[in-house]
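Recap for those who missed Tuesday's class. We walked through two folding examples back to back. For each one, the amino acid string is listed first and its predicted structure tokens come directly after. Nothing is annotated here on purpose, so try labeling regions yourself before you check the end of the notes.
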Amino acid sequence: MRRLRLSISTEEELKKQWQMADVDGNGTLDIKELSIFASNAGLNMTRNEIAAAFDAMDRNFDEK
């Protein structure tokens, strides 16, 4: 497993990037939106890494 470095340095910037990625505006990120967020945050992640991260975070399996 490799380490990734987030280019977002403040909570305000994190919230802004989250809102930009949250295309449907529901306050959660689906897998496509997570991909957008990762890209905007400067994370160079493969599709498999994004899928694995999403699966790890989606504890109730609602795909959000």
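Example two. Treat it independently of the first, because the proteins are unrelated.
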Amino acid sequence: MSMSGIEVDPEVATLFNNMKLRSTNKYATFRIKEKKIVIVDELGEPCKTEDKEKDKECFDELKEKLKKEPRYVLYDFGFTNKEGRKIGKLAFIFWCPEDSKIGDKMIYASTKDTVKKAFTGIGLEFQANDAGDMDYNEFQMEVEKKA
């Protein structure tokens, strides 16, 4: 349980493990329901990407779905780097728009570490506070460095 008293639905960890081991979804978003529990919000279709253009298309699809409410996001990056090496890495993104309600921002921020604990072994974390922060190229370069 987080400092905010909010729990994480076991389905969240199950989904993370399925994405990590079986690439079941390209992305997933999570929300806090009734200020009590973190649940799965939206799922991206399974999509194996091996080039940056296709991966960016999927990322842009995710970006379009993010609104003014904060969300926790898992995104399964998949592309081939300049040297021809295939890179696949799951990343955690904390989406917390500047123009969302202050109470929501506080609850999501204080619950973030609890959510991350459900994502055992996640090595990449990003935070985005507006659409400009959700920059695929910037995230992709960081993913490549850590791969």
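Answers for example two:
The helical segments are 10-22, 52-65, 102-118, 136-146.
The chain has a mean pLDDT of 94.
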